[in-house]
Design goal:
Largest interface: A-C, 38 and 31 residues
Number of strands of chain B: 16
Oligomer: heterotrimer
Number of domains of chain B: 2
Strand content of chain B: 25-35%
Largest sheet of chain B: 9 strands, mixed
Helix content of chain C: 40-55%
Shape of chain B: globular
Radius of gyration of chain B: 28 Å
Strand order of the largest sheet of chain C: 2-3-5-6-4
Chains: A mainly alpha (365), B alpha/beta (372), C alpha+beta (503)
Number of domains of chain C: 3
Distance between the termini of chain B: 120 Å
Largest sheet of chain C: 5 strands, antiparallel
Structural class of chain B: alpha/beta
Number of strands of chain C: 13
Radius of gyration of chain C: 29 Å
Strand content of chain C: 5-15%
Number of helices of chain B: 12
């Protein structure tokens, strides 16, 4: 049962940070070595698919107030409609949010180890990120959203600078005709983007807290995601050409070519902001995950759960073997299934039961 | 009696965390990180290949033992190894300083090395984070190491000075080169370093590559033509003969457009290349009473000469299966189906036989005076 | 031992003690005098002057040094010479109370505690035998500092008046600027030992009653024993469990800026004995505001504010970035600059992080020593410090010149926002450590954490970082930039209207 504490623009902010973090690591390795230029069309496709995916979630949260006029989130609805079985579903949601964190961290690890390899201990970096993320998760959604707005502003500011400096380097002959190598990269790209759509399950927790015109907000968010993804792919392909399909993190490689007067290496600054983004994403999902658990087992304080989840995250990422297994999971269709399950199937089922339930109830009244 | 109800004291827990974290950072976070002055700040690297070993000549700043308070010592260090990374690693053993590549300005390859292929070497430089993608690449005549050891007025010629010999936008950096090399249907060129009779370094001609191998070093006029076709903003000064008078023009801002037409007879693609450029008149030995007549005459001659030059350059490069001017990419983008059918034979079979037609349109400015 | 550890991690709820009931004044004068003597326990400054008025025993009780003796004399004279026409001695009291017009400040109290309090703040007390109430005359006459320009908040075009230590004077300074009956003062006594008077001051029609209630609630909960400065109660005005480095309670010595805040719907808390007023709720962006901003053209005022914000970031981040970049990310520093830094560090014995930390410690020591010393000595300290640290250390090759420059630049930037000195000094050290151990990554993570910490703060329902985040265009007209007065005065710019506010 939630108060309306965040506004729609803040919701969009949170989702955009989430997206930026994923976008930066986008590369042909994440779509099984296909051509990333075709993914411009994939992002357009995903733009439309997202609207379909959101429908059950949106319908579910339309007039979802209970008798005390409080807003119900997905955990409450689960429990209301499915009873004890609903608790299991809520735990699945918590698990999904935690997985999302692990995925981000494992990506971060791959990036650091394969590209930068800085002379600092990764373990300390990881531990401090997680500890601090726990801290800010405990501070609540509101704090994360507000901090996110500032980080997002800085990131966009830098992003615009990078865009402008990269725009001069675009070679238009690099844009090959769409689907030159067939349509598989279209589906692979859409598949990648959809399976990372962790924002929609997060809506289950966040929408009830949100005030303002949600419909408008979702449309803006979806459009921004499409714009961000396609513009990034456009720039990267224009600047790097075929190299974009070879490099592990092509967007990073492209930013490293950006240059503003004497300041050449904007990529490091971008990475810095990216780290801040990862931090915020972790805090958000840790918060959501702990909320799910706290609500389903409503005994312990939120902070203890966050603390425990943080320890789980550290352990899973500390040991290379475990995190390899986890990143292995993400490369398979498991994540896609989880995303579709939490974002689309569960809300759809709940919605259908709700409608039938109401249908049965009405004659009695 | 009910036990006293107690809650976790988060304030104190947070305080504990605040104290633990810095301690953790201090004791575990720091891997031994060399200070700035313990680093050998590499300015330029020249690579030769001798006796199955890579021989590296490195120009670097040494801050540990500076010449005076305001000037770091510029050192030239030589090392060798079976691979580039080994040779670079040896630098540390020679100097005791950790090499820092991020300030590197230029990498010079010897002609022989370039002829054998650069892909392995480039791979090292593009893989390692500290190497910035904006480092410029050059091919040097004979021994590359000599260029980093050149003295002028008793002072060593710095790597940054060698880099600045070429306008930045006409230059090729690691990223550009890697981009072309990794694309199977296009090729790159690098600027070529040579020494003049006074032992001074000059850099005005280009070396053309096929894949990663040097195939041809062009002469000065050909280099201008290549740079015109590659749209580099300052191709240089072109001297030509106009009715037995020498005229020199500074060519600027060429804009070339390439159009494809498919010839239905022999199924070979043809390319129409139209170039627009500005030419600043520098020297003119002719005397014209009429400025319009003079302009037309110079224009006609310039266009004609450049057309022939460009066509010559194109024919020379495509003969060597070198797609320097991105014909392949343009064909692919315009006729994807056709190109798909010939993709594998593009460089070997199709490219040497393509038809091309260059059309130059120049705008002459800076007449300066009227000889009336 | 185990108990202590347990105490550290777990907190137990405290019992609340109920206040003692007040004691009614008794009819016997002897008992009254006895009460005062007992309370002061032979204190040297209690003055009890027994007099006879119209055959009736009476006493004037006061505290030495707190009253104006001339006025008290006049009062005694007037009372002694007073010849009322009464039949019953009991009527004497009401005659004195109602008919003598010589004393404008007069109050009747019925409890011993109230009378004692009045005596303690410099009132003269007239106790008559056979009466169960006491008359109090406001004859305060202690030595006070005259009103002068506040040294810590100078202004070019604003008024030259600053608050003084006396609560009543400060209240008058505010009242003089807002001649509106809606301006309300509420006074209470806080501090179980010092019993200091604290006054809440607000515009009735501009503050949400919830905020006022909440302030009163928090002040009443305040279990502090002694209040020597307004800083003592400012933690009680912050939200519970707030560990932030930044304070969401504003401070000001200037009546004009306090009045400006009050008009915007904030509440000022004045503490007797302190020339600094507390302002709640306070926003982060207000640290960068200055009374002079409102006297200038808006363009320049806006530019000024932006510079101050940049100075703030320089002050906290520059040394951290300097250490972090030079140690871990030298590629981010332009080549020429890197050469200079490397040259300078080449000859010094310490690592860059150590060097920066050492200079910072030295700087803080110099600052502290210069601050508390008499002015003449302070100059000497700064000369020695400047010479020793600035010149000799560089010449001797102990410290690099760029490091000195970075620290000096940071120090100067800090002086632009003197109110934020404490958090900046701490954050700077944290950023140096983060930059020196984890490089750019560490700095960014710390930055994000501090951002979350800042953003999580809210006081009296108003987010600390409003109107930047949560963003509100309306609030932005007087935040990072300042629009012209024509725009500012169009709508009421109340603090509760900030985006994200609860009330």
């Amino acid at each position: 049962m939630n108060q309306k504490i965040i506004s729609v623009p803040q919701l969009i902010t949170l989702f955009m940070i989430n997206r930026l973090v994923i976008s930066l690591t986008f590369g042909s390795s994440s779509i099984n070595n296909h051509n990333i230029w075709d993914c411009v069309i994939s992002s357009l496709l995903v733009f439309f698919i997202t609207f379909i995916l959101i429908i059950p979630m949106m319908m579910l949260f339309k007039n979802n107030k209970n008798s005390d006029n409080k807003n119900l989130d997905i955990v409450d609805i689960n429990e209301q409609i499915l009873g004890k079985f609903g608790k299991i579903i809520s735990v699945i949601y918590a698990f999904y949010f935690l997985l999302s964190c692990t995925y981000t961290l494992s990506n971060f690890k791959i990036f650091i180890e394969s590209v930068i390899n800085p002379p600092i201990s990764f373990l300390v970096l990881l531990t401090s990120i997680i500890i601090f993320a726990c801290y800010s998760a405990a501070k609540g959604i509101n704090a994360i959203a507000r901090a996110g707005a500032i980080i997002l502003f800085l990131t966009f500011f830098l992003l615009i600078m990078i865009y402008i400096s990269l725009f001069k380097l675009i070679d238009f002959t690099n844009f090959r005709p769409f689907f030159y190598d067939g349509y598989s990269s279209l589906t692979e790209g859409a598949f990648f983007m959809l399976s990372r759509m962790s924002c929609i399950p997060a809506m289950g927790m966040l929408l009830p807290m949100c005030f303002g015109n949600i419909k408008k907000g979702i449309i803006t968010w979806n459009f921004l995601v499409f714009f961000l993804m396609s513009s990034m792919i456009f720039l990267v392909t224009g600047v790097l050409g075929e190299l974009s399909n070879v490099k592990l993190f092509p967007i990073y490689t492209a930013t490293s070519a950006a240059k503003i007067s004497k300041f050449e290496n904007l990529d490091s600054l971008y990475l810095g902001l990216w780290t801040a983004g990862i931090f915020l994403k972790l805090s958000l999902f840790l918060n959501l995950s702990s909320e799910c658990l706290r609500k389903s087992f409503g005994r312990h304080s939120n902070k203890i759960i966050i603390f425990l989840l943080g320890i789980i995250l550290i352990i899973t990422n500390m040991f290379t073997k475990i995190s390899n297994i986890i990143s292995g999971i993400f490369d398979t269709r498991f994540l896609f299934f989880m995303t579709i399950f939490t974002a689309f199937l569960v809300p759809l089922i709940l919605l259908i039961i709700k409608k039938i339930f109401k249908f049965k109830q009405e004659p009695e009244i | 009696m009910k036990p006293e109800k107690s809650k976790l004291n988060f304030q104190n827990l947070n305080l504990l965390l605040i104290f633990i974290l810095p301690v953790m950072f201090l004791f575990f976070g720091i891997k031994k990180q060399s200070e700035l002055h313990e680093k050998l700040m590499i300015q330029g690297i020249a690579i030769d290949f001798e006796d199955k070993n890579y021989k590296l000549t490195v120009q670097a700043y040494d801050f540990k033992n500076p010449e005076d308070k305001n000037e770091p010592r510029t050192r030239v260090i030589e090392s060798s190894g079976i691979s580039i990374s080994e040779a670079l690693e040896n630098l540390k053993k020679i100097t005791g300083l950790t090499p820092l590549y991020s300030q590197n300005k230029i990498i010079i390859f010897s002609e022989d090395l370039a002829k054998n292929g650069l892909i392995k070497i480039i791979d090292f430089f593009s893989r390692y984070y500290e190497n910035r993608p904006s480092v410029k690449l050059r091919v040097a005549k004979n021994n590359a190491g000599d260029f980093l050891k050149t003295f002028s007025d008793d002072k060593i010629v710095k790597a940054s000075e060698i880099r600045d010999l070429v306008d930045e936008k006409s230059d090729t950096n690691i990223l550009d080169f890697e981009k072309e090399v990794k694309t199977p249907i296009s090729d790159a060129y690098l600027m070529f370093l040579e020494k003049n009779s006074q032992n001074l370094i000059k850099c005005e001609i280009v070396a053309v590559f096929n894949y990663d191998k040097l195939i041809k070093i062009m002469d000065k006029n050909d280099s201008i033509a290549i740079q015109i076709l590659k749209n580099s903003p300052k191709p240089g000064i072109y001297v030509f003969d106009c009715d037995k008078n020498l005229i020199s023009c500074k060519i600027e801002n060429p804009k070339s457009k390439i159009k494809v037409r498919l010839n239905s007879e022999n199924n070979l693609p043809g390319f129409d290349i139209s170039v627009k450029l500005n030419a600043n008149l520098f020297e003119n030995e002719q005397n014209f009473k009429n400025i319009e007549l003079m302009e037309n005459n110079i224009k006609k001659n310039l266009n004609n000469n450049l057309k022939l030059l460009c066509e010559k350059v194109i024919s020379e490069t495509i003969k060597e299966s070198c797609d320097l001017f991105k014909f392949g990419k343009i064909l692919r983008n315009n006729n994807p189906k056709y190109f798909k059918s010939i993709e594998n034979d593009w460089k070997t079979q199709v490219l040497p036989n393509i038809k091309y037609n260059v059309n130059i349109e120049s705008k002459i400015s800076m007449f300066g005076m009227n000889d009336n | 031992m185990f108990k202590d550890i347990r105490k550290f991690f777990f907190k137990t709820e405290k019992k609340q003690n109920t206040p003692k009931p007040k004691k009614k004044i008794e009819e016997s004068l002897e008992k009254t005098i006895e009460f005062f003597q007992k309370e002061f326990d032979g204190g040297a400054d209690l003055i009890i002057r027994k007099i006879k008025i119209f055959n009736s025993d009476a006493a004037i009780i006061s505290v030495d040094g707190m009253i104006n003796k001339d006025i008290t004399n006049d009062i005694i004279k007037t009372i002694v010479n007073f010849k009322p026409q009464i039949s019953n001695p009991k009527e004497l009291y009401s005659e004195i109370r109602d008919k003598i017009s010589a004393f404008p400040d007069q109050l009747e109290v019925f409890y011993y505690e109230d009378a004692l309090n009045m005596a303690l703040i410099g009132c003269a007390i007239l106790a008559l035998d056979g009466q169960n109430s006491i008359l109090v005359f406001g004859v305060q006459g202690f030595e006070v500092r005259s009103i002068s320009e506040p040294t810590s908040e100078k202004s070019q075009r604003g008024s030259r008046e600053g608050f003084v230590e006396v609560l009543r004077f400060n209240m008058a300074l505010i009242r003089r600027r807002i001649a509106n009956p809606k301006l309300k003062f509420e006074t209470m006594q806080l501090g179980s030992t010092t019993r200091t008077y604290v006054s809440i001051c607000y515009m009735n029609d501009r503050v949400e009653p919830e905020i006022i209630d909440e302030i009163k609630k928090r002040l009443k909960k305040c279990d502090i024993k002694s209040i020597m400065t307004s800083g003592c109660i400012s933690p009680y005005l912050e939200e519970e469990g707030d560990l932030s480095l930044f304070s969401s309670v504003g401070l000001s010595e200037r009546p004009d800026s306090v009045c400006g805040k009050i008009v915007e719907g904030r509440v000022a808390v004045l503490v007797d004995g302190s020339p600094t007023a507390l302002i709640v709720p306070y926003l982060f962006i207000e640290y960068f505001h200055n009374i002079d901003d409102y006297a200038m053209k808006p363009y320049f005022a806006s530019l000024n504010r932006i510079f101050k914000i940049i100075a703030f970031f320089i002050a906290i981040l520059l040394p951290g970035f300097y250490v972090g970049f030079a140690t871990f990310n030298p590629e981010l520093i332009p080549g020429e600059l890197l050469n200079k830094i490397s040259l300078a560090t080449g000859s010094t014995p310490f690592s860059l992080m150590m060097e920066t930390l050492i200079i910072h410690f030295l700087y803080e020591i110099l600052r502290e020593s210069g601050l508390r010393l008499p002015q003449n000595l302070g100059h000497a300290v700064s000369i020695v410090g400047g010479l020793v640290v600035g010149d000799a250390a560089v010449n001797a090759g102990l410290i690099g010149a760029p490091t000195i420059m970075v620290v000096a630049l940071t120090a100067i930037s800090t002086f632009v926002i003197p109110n934020l000195y404490e958090p900046i000094a701490l954050l700077r050290l944290l950023f140096i450590i983060a930059g020196g151990t984890l490089g750019l990554w560490g700095i960014m993570i710390l930055f994000a954490v501090i951002l979350v910490n800042l953003c999580s703060k809210s006081n009296f329902g108003v987010p600390f970082t409003s109107p930047i985040s949560p963003f509100g265009l309306f609030g932005m007209r007087d935040s990072i930039i300042r629009t012209s007065w024509k725009t500012l005065s169009k709508n009421k710019n109340k603090i509760q209207n900030m985006p994200g506010s609860v009330y």
